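go over whats below:
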Amino acid sequence: MLAYAGTYTERMPWGSPLRRKLANLLSRRRSRGIYVVDFDEGTGAVVRTDVAAETHNPSWVALHPGGRFLYAVNEGDDGFVSTFAVDAQSGALAMLGRVPTQGAAPCYVEVNRAGRCAYVANYGSGTVSVHPIGDDGALGESVDIIRHFGSSVHRQRQTQPHPHCIAVSPDDSFALVPDLGTDRTMVYRIDPVTGRLEGNDPPFAAALPGQGPRHAAFHPAGGVVYVLNELGSTVTSFRFDGATGALERVQNVSTLPDGWRGNNTAAHIQVHPGGRILFASNRGHDSIATFEIDDEGSMRRLAVTRSGGRTPRGFTLDPTGAFLLVAHQSNDRLVSFRILENGGLERVWRGRLPSGVCLAFLQG
């Protein structure tokens, strides 16, 4: 079973040239681009990790629903998003082209369920770009640029908009965009023909001040959305109205153990395909938080498990839902866990992946 890993080829991907140079001089190990991971679904071990394609700062990757193409943002001051053809046997990637996102520091790409459109969050410029997908799988130039406005209470991190994710609803009708800088999760209707984003009414759901919404995940049964807050290290649950796009806040639960004090930022969130467990990663505490989900979609934190490395940025579940695989940005660790029946995590393997940021399994 194959998975792809997005990485940083530069430790400081954007910002002033001096800051980037100093950060990269301090880095002993450098990534070369997108990596393919050969995963043993029986044991949870990784058999091999190879370079699939050399490309600059592919910090987030997304696979086409058909599995034939992979899309990767190239994070930097001038943002791009690249298209690759997937060799499902070897895992090799062949570049088909790249297009500008017309924004700075693109950090996330999402493909809709129909496979006809890709959405990119440009963290640095506070914009979302919309790119059509051709019959050959390649992305076209952006057909829409959505610009966010506003700020919030954190004096360093929330002086301007910072969209960090696009979560497309299961029926391709809505796109939710958590914006760390404005403490809002924006809601957009998706035009069924062009894929363009249209402002919704209501236009957003507000987070508690200073929480910093980062990533979002729909419950597989629909009706509930979970938003991970980077600055607050919490998960907020919302009731989601699939007809109107309205979000109603229900809970706000910490990803950290009770009584822990220290610097932490939450990174990624994913719901188990069975819909009964939710996972979130902590950078600082360096752990994976596990939550039980009841029939109403409410959360109860079950455990917080050390992740086996430093700065667990992105993680994913294998298609069977038996294992969790997590990449660590700061010390190049790749770690797999068996998911136990009670929702706990048992570490089964640890190896190396340089500057890992995200992971995505090739389905089928």
Remarks:
- DSSP finds one helix and 28 strands in the chain.
- The longest strand covers residues 197-206.
- The radius of gyration is 19 Å.
- The helical segments are 17-25.
